[in-house]
Amino acid sequence: MIINVDDAGDAPATDVNLREPVFRARGLTKIYHVGEVDVCALRGIDLELYAGEFVVLLGASGSGKSTLLNILGGLDCPTAGDVWFRDHDLVHATDADLTRYRRDHVGFVFQFYNLIPSLTARENVALITDIAEESMTPEAALGLVGLTARLDHFPAQLSGGEQQRVAIARAIAKQPDVLLCDEPTGALDVQTGITVLESLERVNEELGTTTAIITHNAVIARMANRIITLSDGRIVGEETNAVRSRASELVW
Ligand SMILES: Nc1ncnc2c1ncn2[C@@H]1O[C@H](COP(=O)(O)OP(=O)(O)OP(=O)(O)O)[C@@H](O)[C@H]1O
Ligand SMILES: [Mg+2]
Question: pLDDT at position 9, please?
């Protein structure tokens, strides 16, 4: 059941610490200049994401979801407005600051897995664990996403869902504070998508990683603590799930 945040009363059915914002955005605006044309992708976004929460971002194509996620992840800068990750000011950060921020705090998962074809699952994850400071072992990260039996397989020897789970293992192996996922199940069939969502659910629960997922699939919103809906560069809806579904219960 989805209920409005305002109706949630004093006892939200979530163990997320809503007093500890990880991200805080105020008046985020993004204008892309393409030739003579200005495209306004974000039109004043105010947003908080809290420690440990699982947030789903919904919205039509072109509504600004990826733009917002890329700014939170330090891949892009807003045209106006402010955004902080804890006490890091991401708007006034230098490129070197943003590179360090991404390296130390953010894991990304995209629709396409971007694995290196000539490296095994274990080696793809080790690329990250070798350079990160407090990382888990590639074996532990791949175990968390259920791929212990696939450590020495190359991407071409893995299904799409398994490749996406390697990508998740790679993203979480350095134990990031936040995991930002842009349509992680967009290329997958239902059953495979669910195994990928189960992995994201497990990472969120076992590591406490604050997780934001962009999807076109409103069914996935049932897993979330909170659902944020964008339309034409604005937040037009925010709901909280009184009861969350397990990934394994989703049907679409
Ligand atoms: N690099 C860019 N240059 C110019 N315009 C862009 C750029 N990236 C996005 N836009 C425009 O900004 C708007 C928001 O794009 P964005 O990619 O954030 O949407 P989205 O909600 O992620 O859409 P989708 O669901 O199709 O991925 C769109 O109108 C898009 O055309
Ligand atoms: Mg997008």
Answer: 40
pLDDT of residue 7: 41
User: Over 80: is that where the pLDDT of 30 sits?
Assistant: yes
Range of the domain at 170: 2-19+52-76+105-247
CA of 65 to the centre of ligand 2 (A): 6
| Rg of the Cα atoms in the chain | 18
User: What's the 28 CA to ligand 2 centre distance in angstroms?
Assistant: 17
What CA–CA distance (Å, rounded) separates 174 from 197? 20
Q: How many domains does the chain have?
A: 1
Q: What is the pTM of this model?
A: 0.91
Residue whose entry in the numeric block shows the structure tokens 């955004």: 83
State which of 28, 32, 69 you would mutate to test the pocket of ligand 1, scoring each by most atoms of that ligand within 8 A of its C-beta.
Answer: 32
